[in-house]
């Protein structure tokens, strides 16, 4: 007898069926995805959710906007780092200044008008040697104005939910936290 190639057929043949996921399970999965994307711990995400509740308007888009304003995320979005974990590490290693002051806190919340730049002493690092070539191919979001000659970028506006495109159903995450 030939073996079924479809895993679902194989499970049915063995007598096990997968139940549809509950609303709680879907919410938990979406929350975990959001945590993983932004590299957050549970307490941090809860704190951002509580902060988003205080703003007027929809909580989900506000939550995403708060997460997008993080320094490590802005460094990733601007193209200075290839991944969010790399941006986080670059921040903790004090490679960047915000408005001229060195910052080593990845969760630092940026505001419109903030200028983020690579520290003068760190620009000679080998990572920044091919910086010009990398920046030619990068498309940063509309709320970030990149200045490759100055090794920096300016936050021009608040991040928008539509432009974030995180791939997580934020409505489900908000419902999960609201329970």
What does this 3D model show about the protein?
- It is a single chain.
- The chain is of the alpha+beta class and 179 residues long.
- It has a single domain (23-159, 169-179), classed as Structural Genomics Hypothetical 15.5 Kd Protein In mrcA-pckA Intergenic Region, Chain A (Roll), CATH 3.10.290.10.
- Helix content is 46%, strand content 9%.
- It has nine helices and five strands, in the order H-H-H-H-H-H-E-E-E-H-E-E-H-H.
- It has helices spanning 7-13, 23-38, 42-54, 59-68, 71-78, 84-92, 131-136, 161-164, 170-178, and strands spanning 96-98, 101-102, 115-118, 144-147, 152-155.
- Strands 2-1-3-5-4 form a five-stranded antiparallel β-sheet, with helices on one face.
- A hairpin with a 4-residue loop joins strand 4 and strand 5.
- Helix 2 (23-38) crosses helix 9, helix 3 (42-54) packs across helix 4 (59-68) and helix 5 (71-78) crosses helix 6.
- It is globular, with a radius of gyration of 21 Å.
- The termini are far apart.
- The mean pLDDT is 88.
Which short descriptors sum up this protein?
alpha+beta; Structural Genomics Hypothetical 15.5 Kd Protein In mrcA-pckA Intergenic Region, Chain A; 9 helices; 179 residues
Range of strand content:
5-15%
Query: What is the succession of H and E elements?
Result: HHHHHHEEEHEEHH
CATH homologous superfamily label:
RNA-binding S4 domain
In CATH terms, what is the architecture? Answer: Roll
Task: Report low-confidence residues grouped into runs of 5 or more.
Answer: none
The tally of structural domains comes to 1
Tell me the Rg in angstroms: 21 Å
- Major β-sheet, in short? 5 strands, antiparallel
Q: Count of helices?
A: 9
Q: In total, how many beta strands? A: 5
What's the end-to-end separation, in Å?
Answer: 49 Å
CATH topology group: Structural Genomics Hypothetical 15.5 Kd Protein In mrcA-pckA Intergenic Region, Chain A
User: Which descriptor suits the 3D outline?
Assistant: globular
- CATH class bucket: Alpha Beta
Output the structural class: alpha+beta
Sheet with most strands: strand arrangement: 2-1-3-5-4
Overall pLDDT metric: 88
Amount of helix: 40-55%
